[in-house]
C-alpha cells in the first residue's frame, strides 16, 4: 500500500513546489478499512517515506488533508471534522486544547516526534553578534533586534504554528514570570516585544515557503532584500543546512531561557470508530519503535520522543528549557491581537483587481465579498485575525481595458472602524465592464507604490494581482518582463502574490510571481475570500 496524501481543494502553486491550502471542511469521504483519515499541518508532507513504509508494515494507510493552525482549530470547534476525519495531526494541540468546543473532540494523543522553535542565523551574522559560541537569552536577542543589528523572517502566527510558538515563546521568556503569560503581562511586556519584532523583515503563511524565500534571497534568485536569519522549527533549519543550497550554513541559536517545542501528537478524534482506533494504535505503536524513531530523525530532522533513542550530533544543544504555554484562550487571543495591532511592522498592500466584463455575475460578487470579509464582516476565528488591521495601508487599483484610479486607505492606530467602513463601501461599489489589461495595470501598480514606499519605507509591502482571464489589452508579459529592470530599486523588491481565478493564465501568473519573489494562489476551486485570507499570512 502507499500513503495517500490527499490535498485540500485550494492548491497553492509556487514555482516548482505545491502545497495544500486550508480547506478543513472538505469531505474526506467515507472511511475504509485500514485507512486513517487525518486532518494535518502541511509540514507533515516530509513524512511521506516514513508513512509509506509504515503502510507496508502495519496495513494502515494515512489519508491526509492539510490545513493551517487556526483553520484546524476552527474545524474542530465548529464540528466540521465530525464523521469526516478519524484523527488530527498538528505540530501541537495547545491552541485547540484551549477552546472547549475543540478540546472535547480530541481523544487519545500519542507524541511521535518533536522540534523546538529556535533562531537560525547565517554563520557570519551569528559570529558578528557573538552568538556563534555562546548561549544567549531572548532578552539579548530582543535588544539586538530593536537596534536592527540583524533581520529575520518568521511565519504569521495566525497561519503557522512555528510563528505562533515563536510569539508565545518570546512573550513568555520576556515576561519572566515562570508561569504561562496572561493578558495583563502581555500589556507590560509589549515594549520589549516591539523591539524583537522590529527586526522582522519577512513574513510567510507557512514554514516551507519561508525557508524557500530565505534561500532565494540568500542566493540572489529573488529581488527582495537579503535576510540574516529565520525563526523556525529546528527541523526546518537543519534541513536547510543539509540541503547544501545556502551560500553559508545557518547557526542555530537556542535561547537559554527557554523555547516552545512542537510535540506532534497524532490525535484520535473522540468519536472515532473501532476500526480507526485500531488503526491509530497500530500506526502509533509502529512509529514509536526505536528503528522508526531513528528513521524519522534521519528523514525529517525532528527529535525522537522515545526514551533510549539517542540524539545524534546534529542536535548540538540537548538541555532545552521548555517555556510555559498559556492555556487560557483569552491570553492567546490577546497575544495574537497585540501582534497584529501593535507589535509587528505594519503592512502595505496594493490590490490590482480585475473588474473586466468577464467578471460579471457571481465573479464580481465574489470579489466584493472577499474584500468586505477583510473589513471585519467575517467573524470566524481565522477572519478575526486576518482582517485589515490598525496601522495598515491598503490601496485598491481596479482594472479592465486599462488601469483604473487607485484609492488608498490608511487605517489609524487604535480604532480603524471608520476607515474599514470606507473600504467596505468602496468594495461594494465595484462594477464590471471592459477588457483585460493585466500588465499595464501591474506596471501602474509599481508606479503607485513608489511614492508610498518613499514616504514610509518601514512596512511589509506587497502587491496582490487577481484576474479571471488572459491579458487582452495593452502590453504583454514579455514587454512587462523587459521593462521590469527599469522599476526603481525601492519597489522592484516588492513581491507580487498572484491569484488564479476563472480562466486566468496559470503559466503567466506563475512567471510574474517567480520573477518578483511572490507566490501563486489558486482560487478556481476555493472561495476567493478564503484565498485572500490565506494571502494575508504572507503580508
Report on this model:
By secondary structure, the protein is α/β, with parallel strands linked by helices. 41% of the residues lie in helices and 19% in strands. It is built from 21 helices and 20 strands. The strands form three sheets. An eight-stranded mixed beta sheet has the order 3-2-20-19-18-15-16-17, sandwiched between helices. The chain has a six-stranded mixed beta sheet with strand order 1-5-4-6-14-7. Strands 8, 9, 10, 11, 12 and 13 form a six-stranded mixed beta sheet that branches. Strand 2 (11-14) and strand 3 form a beta hairpin. The longest helix has 18 residues, at 438-455.
Give me the secondary-structure topology.
Elements: E1 4-5, E2 11-14, E3 17-20, E4 35-41, H1 48-58, E5 61-67, H2 69-78, E6 87-89, H3 94-97, H4 100-103, E7 106-111, E8 115-122, H5 123-129, H6 138-146, E9 152-155, H7 161-175, H8 183-197, E10 200-204, H9 207-218, E11 229-233, H10 234-243, E12 250-253, E13 261-262, E14 265-269, H11 274-287, H12 290-300, H13 329-343, E15 347-354, H14 362-377, H15 381-385, E16 393-399, E17 407-410, H16 417-428, H17 438-455, E18 460-467, H18 477-484, H19 489-492, E19 496-500, H20 506-516, E20 519-522, H21 528-536
Parallel strand pairs: 1-5, 4-5, 4-6, 9-10, 9-11, 15-16, 15-18, 18-19, 19-20
Antiparallel strand pairs: 2-3, 2-20, 6-14, 7-14, 8-11, 8-12, 8-13, 16-17
Helix pairs in contact: 1-11, 6-8, 7-8, 7-13, 8-13, 14-16, 14-21, 17-18
Amino acid at each position: 500500500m502507499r500513503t495517500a496524501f490527499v490535498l485540500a481543494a485550494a492548491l497553492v502553486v509556487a514555482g516548482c513546489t505545491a502545497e495544500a491550502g486550508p480547506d478543513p471542511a472538505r469531505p474526506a469521504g467515507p472511511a475504509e478499512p485500514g485507512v486513517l483519515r487525518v486532518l494535518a499541518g502541511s509540514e507533515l508532507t516530509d513524512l511521506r517515506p516514513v508513512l509509506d513504509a509504515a503502510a507496508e508494515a502495519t496495513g494502515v494507510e494515512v489519508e491526509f488533508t492539510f490545513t493551517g493552525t487556526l483553520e484546524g482549530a476552527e474545524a474542530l470547534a465548529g464540528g466540521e471534522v465530525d464523521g469526516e476525519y478519524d484523527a488530527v495531526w498538528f505540530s501541537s494541540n495547545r491552541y485547540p486544547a484551549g477552546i472547549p468546543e475543540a478540546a472535547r473532540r480530541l481523544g487519545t494523543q500519542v507524541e511521535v516526534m518533536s522540534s523546538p522553535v529556535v533562531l537560525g542565523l547565517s554563520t557570519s551574522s551569528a559570529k558578528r553578534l557573538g552568538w556563534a559560541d555562546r548561549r544567549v537569552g531572548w532578552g539579548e536577542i530582543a535588544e539586538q533586534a530593536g537596534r536592527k543589528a540583524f533581520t529575520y523572517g518568521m511565519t504569521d502566527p495566525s497561519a503557522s504554528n512555528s510563528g505562533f510558538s515563536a510569539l508565545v515563546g518570546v512573550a513568555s521568556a520576556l515576561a519572566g514570570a515562570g508561569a504561562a503569560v496572561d493578558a495583563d503581562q502581555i500589556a507590560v511586556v509589549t515594549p520589549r516585544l516591539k523591539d524583537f519584532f522590529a527586526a522582522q523583515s519577512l513574513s510567510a503563511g507557512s514554514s516551507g515557503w519561508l525557508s524557500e524565500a530565505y534561500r532565494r534571497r540568500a542566493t540572489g534568485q529573488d529581488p527582495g532584500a537579503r535576510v540574516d536569519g529565520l525563526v523556525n522549527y529546528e527541523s526546518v533549519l537543519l534541513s536547510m543546512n543539509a540541503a547544501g543550497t545556502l551560500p553559508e550554513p545557518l547557526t542555530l541559536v537556542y535561547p537559554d531561557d527557554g523555547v516552545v517545542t512542537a510535540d506532534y501528537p497524532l490525535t484520535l478524534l473522540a468519536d472515532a470508530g473501532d476500526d480507526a482506533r485500531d488503526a491509530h494504535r497500530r500506526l502509533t505503536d509502529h512509529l514509536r519503535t526505536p528503528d522508526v524513531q531513528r528513521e524519522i530523525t534521519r528523514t525529517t530532522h525532528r527529535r525522537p520522543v522515545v526514551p533510549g533513542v539517542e540524539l545524534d550530533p546534529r542536535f548540538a544543544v540537548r538541555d532545552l528549557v521548555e517555556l510555559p504555554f498559556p492555556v487560557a484562550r483569552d491570553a492567546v487571543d490577546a497575544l495574537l491581537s497585540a501582534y497584529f495591532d501593535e507589535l509587528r511592522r505594519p503592512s502595505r498592500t496594493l490590490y490590482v483587481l480585475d473588474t473586466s466584463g468577464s467578471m460579471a455575475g457571481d465573479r464580481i460578487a465574489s470579489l466584493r465579498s472577499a474584500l468586505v470579509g477583510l473589513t471585519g464582516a467575517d467573524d470566524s476565528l481565522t477572519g478575526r485575525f486576518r482582517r485589515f488591521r490598525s496601522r495598515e495601508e491598503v490601496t485598491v487599483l481596479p482594472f479592465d481595458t486599462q488601469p483604473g484610479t487607485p484609492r488608498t486607505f490608511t487605517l489609524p492606530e487604535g480604532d480603524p472602524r471608520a476607515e474599514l467602513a470606507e473600504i467596505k463601501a468602496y468594495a461594494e461599489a465595484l462594477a464590471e465592464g471592459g477588457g483585460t489589461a493585466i500588465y499595464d495595470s501591474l506596471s501602474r501598480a509599481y508606479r503607485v507604490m513608489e511614492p508610498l514606499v518613499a514616504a514610509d519605507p518601514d512596512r511589509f509591502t506587497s502587491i496582490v494581482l487577481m484576474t479571471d482571464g488572459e491579458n487582452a489589452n495593452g502590453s504583454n508579459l514579455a514587454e512587462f518582463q523587459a521593462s521590469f529592470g527599469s522599476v526603481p530599486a525601492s519597489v522592484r523588491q516588492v513581491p507580487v502574490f498572484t491569484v488564479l481565478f476563472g480562466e486566468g493564465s496559470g503559466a503567466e501568473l506563475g512567471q510574474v510571481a517567480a520573477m518578483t519573489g511572490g507566490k501563486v494562489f489558486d482560487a478556481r476551486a476555493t472561495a476567493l475570500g478564503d484565498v485572500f485570507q490565506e494571502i494575508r499570512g504572507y503580508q
